[in-house]
Amino acid sequence: MEYKIPTDLKYAKTHEWAKIINEKTIAIVGITDYAQYQLGDIVYIELPQVGSTFKKGDVLTELESVKAVEELFMPLTGEILEVNKDLEENPEYINNSPYEHGWIVRIAISNLLEIEELLTAEKYSELIEKEEH
């Protein structure tokens, strides 16, 4: 299976992505194409509250699919600035467009050093290749 892995994003080993913007102060976060494929059709997501703060590795929210309920982890420490309200009515955006319409939160990054701990697209590709074999 060939998954989309955009090279301009950073990746967590737990299959979340982060698009670092605004001179590394803001990140847009979602789940990867690989993760949404593994989950199957996503039917519900509980969005976190704007203003909430999370540490890297904390459970950000849960995704419910036809197969299972999976936890989504925060790839970077930060405060939630915005949630993708479209997902409340259309959680399938995560399946259909994980990197565009299916983004989950926008955060203010608290610890810039954590960005360097995330994987490049190449390293993430190697990780999923190992998981599949």
Describe the structure.
- The structure is a single chain.
- This protein is 20% helix and 32% strand.
- It is an alpha+beta fold and 133 residues long.
- The protein has one domain: OB fold (Dihydrolipoamide Acetyltransferase, E2P) (Beta Barrel), CATH 2.40.50.100.
- The strands form 2 sheets. A 6-stranded antiparallel sheet has the order 1-2-3-9-8-5.
- A hairpin with a 3-residue loop joins strand 6 and strand 7.
- It is globular.
- The N and C termini lie close together (12 Å).
- The mean pLDDT is 96.
Biggest β-sheet description:
6 strands, antiparallel
Class by SSE composition: alpha+beta
| Percentage of β-strand residues | 25-35%
Total of helices: 4
What is the CATH architecture annotation? Beta Barrel
Q: Give, in spatial order, the strands making up the sheet with the most strands.
A: 1-2-3-9-8-5
CATH homologous superfamily assignment: RNA polymerase II/Efflux pump adaptor protein, barrel-sandwich hybrid domain
Q: Which topology does CATH recognise? A: OB fold (Dihydrolipoamide Acetyltransferase, E2P)
Low-confidence stretches: none
**Average pLDDT, all residues:** 96
Radius of gyration over C-alpha positions, nearest whole angstrom: 14 Å
Task: State the helicity in percent bands.
Answer: 10-25%
CATH class: Mainly Beta
Using DSSP, what is the number of strands?
9
Q: Return the string of H and E elements.
A: EEEHEEEEEHHEH
Integer count of domains: 1
Shape call:
globular
Roughly how many Å apart are the termini?
12 Å
